[in-house]
Each structure stands twice: as C-alpha cells, then as structure tokens.
Amino acid sequence: METTIDMQTTIDQYLATWNEPDGAARAEQSRAIWVSDGRLVDPLLDATGPDAIAAAIGELRDQMPGHSLTMTTVLDAHHDQARFGWTVNAPDGTVAVAGIDVVTFAPDGRMQSAVGFFGDVEAAA
C-alpha cells in the first residue's frame, strides 16, 4: 500500500536530512523522501538517487561542520512544484549561504527533484 505525504511534511523531512549528522540515519531518511531516480542539484553538487543524495549531503556537512539548514520562507506551491527560501547557518548563528530550492514532487508526495540556487537573482540591467 502506497502512502501519500504532503509537500510540507516532505520538505520538513528534507531539512531534517540535511541536518542529520549520522550518515546511516541520513541515508534512511533520504530513501523515505526521494523517489529512486530523484535528483538534487545546486552549484556545489549533482546527485541522483537517495543514497547518492545522502552521501553528497554528508560531504557538504563535512566541509561545514556544525552548520544547519533552516527554511526561511513559507512553502510556495502549485501543482507538483514548490519553492522555498533557506539559509545555512554557522554554529554562531551567522548565515554562511542563503538561497532557494525549487522542488518537483512525485504523485505520492516524495521528491522527484530539487534544484538549489545560491544568493539573490541579479537585477536586469
């Protein structure tokens, strides 16, 4: 029996995956929220599949020890798409990087893709 989960729950679990220090727990969380061919891509990584996504997140966590990912906006969603703002915060609370993710969801509510962008979009000249 397949269970459908709502977008906000999936995104909450996605953030928890980013903030999970234990690699095995992170991989288990990733398998619960990503479809088998799900893809996470941003300026620093490009990973396909829940295990590769969990490993890529782990590599970034290793480069930024003690940092956490926080959602900074409401989830703006329509159809099977959503976007939200986030920050990566250093242990002292300063913002190391900020950006947005644009997410596509599978029919059962798991993530099909997440595309991250860093910083603000530059104004047109």
Any descriptors?
alpha+beta; Nuclear Transport Factor 2, Chain: A; 7 strands; seven-stranded mixed β-sheet; 125 residues
Strand content: 35-45%
Principal-axes shape call: globular
Find the CATH topology. Nuclear Transport Factor 2, Chain: A
Number of helices, where a helix is a run of at least 4 consecutive DSSP H or I residues? 3
The assigned CATH architecture is: Roll
Task: Note down, in words, how this protein is organized.
With 125 residues, the chain is of the alpha+beta class. It has one domain: Nuclear Transport Factor 2, Chain: A (Roll), CATH 3.10.450. Helix content is 30%, strand content 38%. It has three helices and seven strands, in the order ααββαβββββ. Strands 1, 2, 3, 4, 5, 6 and 7 form a seven-stranded mixed β-sheet that branches. The N and C termini lie far apart (53 Å).
List the helices and strands and how they pair.
Layout: H1 7-19, H2 23-33, E1 34-42, E2 45-48, H3 50-63, E3 68-71, E4 76-78, E5 81-89, E6 95-105, E7 111-118
Parallel strand pairs: 1-7
Antiparallel strand pairs: 1-2, 3-5, 4-5, 5-6, 6-7
Helix pairs in contact: 1-2, 2-3
In short:
This protein has 125 residues and is an alpha+beta fold. 30% of the residues lie in helices and 38% in strands. A hairpin with a 2-residue loop joins strand 4 (76-78) and strand 5 (81-89).
